[in-house]
Amino acid sequence: MLSVSTPAAAAEGCEVDYTVNEWNSGFTAGVEITNLGDAIDGWTLEWDFPGSQEITGAWNAETSQSGSTATAENVSYNAGIPTDGTASFGFQATHSGDNPAPESFTLNGTVCDGSTDGGGGDDGDGGDDGNGGGDDGNGDDGDQQPQPSGSPEGWASQNGGTTGGAGGETVTVSSADALTEALQSSGPTVVRLDGSVDLDGMNDIVSDKTLIGVGSDAEITGGGLDIDEAHNVIVRNIAFSDWGDDAINVQEGSTNVWIDHNSFTGGSDGAVDIKRESDYITVSWNHVYDHGKSMLLGHSDGHTEDEGHLRVSYHHNFFDGSGSRHPRVRFGETVHVYNNYYRDNAEYGVASTMGAGVLVEGNYFENVDNPTHVGYADSDDGRLVVRDNVFDNSGDPETAGSVAEVPYSYDLDSAQDVPGIVTSGAGPGNVDDTGGGDTGGDDGGNGDGDGNDDGGSDPQPSAELEGWATRNGGTTGGAGGETVTVSSSGALLDALQSSGPTVVRLDGSVDLSGMNDVASDKTLIGVGSDATVTGGGFDLNGVSNVVIRNINFDDWDDDAINVQESTTNVWIDHNSFGTGSDGAVDIKRESDFITVSWNYAQDHDHVMLLGHSDDHTEDEGHLRVSYHHNHFDGTYSRHPRVRFGEPVHVYNNYYDGVDTGVASTQGAGVLVEGNYFQDVAHPTLEGYGSSSDGRVELNGNVFDNSGEPESSGGVAEVPYSYDLDSAQDVPGIVSGGAGTGNI
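and the corresponding C-alpha cells:
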C-alpha cells in the first residue's frame, strides 16, 4: 500500500490522498479529496500519470483519459464537498513496469499546495443548478452524502445524511424492556424487533439508532416513540396500533430522521407528528389506515420558532381511509409531498398554513373531496403548489403562491402509476430487516492476486446486494430502463427477451415450458408475495447484468434458473424454490461474479450446483459466487456442490434438516463461515462422488446436532467488504427474512 498527500485544488485549497493496491500488471487506487476552502458543488479532478497507467473502470466518479492525462468528475450523490469535508472515489487500472504515483492534482482547474490562499482558478462555488447549500433562505441545506443500505431520499439525505445505527452493535429484542433499553443505550446501535411488544406512554429514542422490524410481524401496541433532541434516527418496518398518545413524535430540534415502511392504525393522536424546530426528515412508504389524525407538521400557530425548520419529505405513503393531516403543515418550507396515494380520506389531504411552503407533486388522490387546503381552521394561509397530480373522483385542489425548489435529486414516478406502486410496496414486510450496510466501493476493488480482473465495486440500486455480484462493475439489472408489469407467460417472455435495460414486474402466476432465455440488462421482480413461475425455468446464457428477485418457482421441468456460457454479474435474491426436476439454481461453464442471497428452498433434492462437470477445466479461474442468508429447509444436497471455483463464499446460511451441506471438489476453494447447520448429516465435504477433493476453510459456524465437517483451509481471501452476522443469530435472521414477500 502506498499513501501520499499531494497538492490538489479547490476554491481556496485542498489535499488529495492517493492509496494504491497493486498486483502483477494491475492495480486499484482509492482517492480522497479534502476541501480546505469554501464549500463546493460539483468537482473535476485532473492528474497526469507518470508511467504507462491506463484506467479500466471506476466507482463513485465518472473517469476519462487522454494519453497520460486522467480526469474524474463527481457523480450525483457526491457533488458537494463542504469546508473540511471529503469526497472519495476509486478506479481500477493496468500498468507495465513501474507504477509511480501522480506528482500533482488539480481540482476545478487550480493546482494548490494544501494551503488556503487560493490560486486563481474557478472558485468552485457551484450552486448554479439550485442544489447547493443555503440557497432557499432557510439556512444550510447540508450535503448530499452516499447513504448506507436502504438509504433515504429527500430531506433526510441532506445535512450529512441519515445512517441511524450503522457501524454500531446489532441487537435483536423481543420484549418491551429490552427494546426500550436498546433504544436508549449509548453509541450507534441497530435494534431489530422480533415479534410484538406492548408499550406504555411515550418512550425515548436517543441519537444514532436504527429500529427495524424482523420480517413482517414486528409490532408496537399501546405506546409510542419519542425522538426528542436526537439526531440520526431511523424507524422502519414496524406495525403501530392502539397508541395512547402519538405513535412517533419528533420534536425539540431533532434532525436527520427517517420513518419508513411502517403501518399505523387505531391510535389516540398523531401517527407521525413532527414539531418544535425539527429538521431534515423523510417519511416514506408508510401505510396509514382506519385512523383520524395522521401526520402533523408544526407545533402550533404561536410557535414561530419553527420558521426556517421543518424541512420534511413525504413520499410513497398510502393514506388509506384516514381522516386528515397528510400532512397538516405550519411554517415549514420547502415541505415536499410527492408520489403518495390518497384514497377515501374523510376530511382533506394536505393543508398548508402559517406561511408554510408546500410542493405537492405526482400524487394520486382518489375519492378525496378536499385534496389540498390553503389555510385551515383558525390558522393563517400558507402557500401550496400542485404539479403533475391525478385527482380521481376528487374535488378541486386549493393552491396559492410559489414555493422554493428542493435542493436534492429524487426519482418521481408518474402519478398514474402511484396506486399500483404504493399499494404493493408500502408498509411493513417490504424491506430488508438486517439493518443495512454500506455497499459503496470503499474497499477500492482490491485484487486477490490471481491475475484475474476482479473489477470495482459500484454503488448498487439496492444496497441489499453484497458479495461477488458487486464486482466487475456491479450488477444493476434493468435499472435506468423501462419498467413493465406483466401477468401472462407471453408478455413475460417478450419483456425478458427485449433489447435494452428493462425492469419486468411479474404480477400473479404464469406457467412456462422448458428453459426460457433472459437477455442482458434485465431485472425480473415479483409483485407482492404471490408472483409464481411453474412448469419451466430461466436460462441465462452468455449474458450479463441480470437480477431475479421475489419469485416463487415450482414444478420446473429442467432447472428453475440456469446460469451458463460465461454469463457474468447476476443477482438471484429473495426467491422461493419448491420441487422440480433438476437444479434450483445451477451455475456453470465459466460464469462469474454472481450472488445468490436470501432464497428459501424446501423439499428439493438438487439445489445449487456450481461447476458443469469434472472434466470442464475451463471453469478454473471463474465461478466466483457468493451464497449468503439462504434457508435450506429439508433439502437434500448441493448447497452448493462446487467444482473448480475460488474463492466461493458461503456465509450466514441456515441449513435445517439437510443431508449434505457444502461439497468442495476438483480443486475448488470454498470459504464457509457464519452458517448454522442444524440436523445436517454431512455439513461440509472435501470431494464428493467420483470428483477429486477441493478445499474448505471454516470460520465461525455452528454445528447443532450435526456431523463433523471436513476442512483443510487455504482458500483465497474475498476482495469485497460484507457484513457477517453471528452464526448463533442466523436461524432467526434467515427464517424471518428469506424467500418471497420480504423486499
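(Above: one complete record from the training split.) The chain is about 5% helix and 40% strand.
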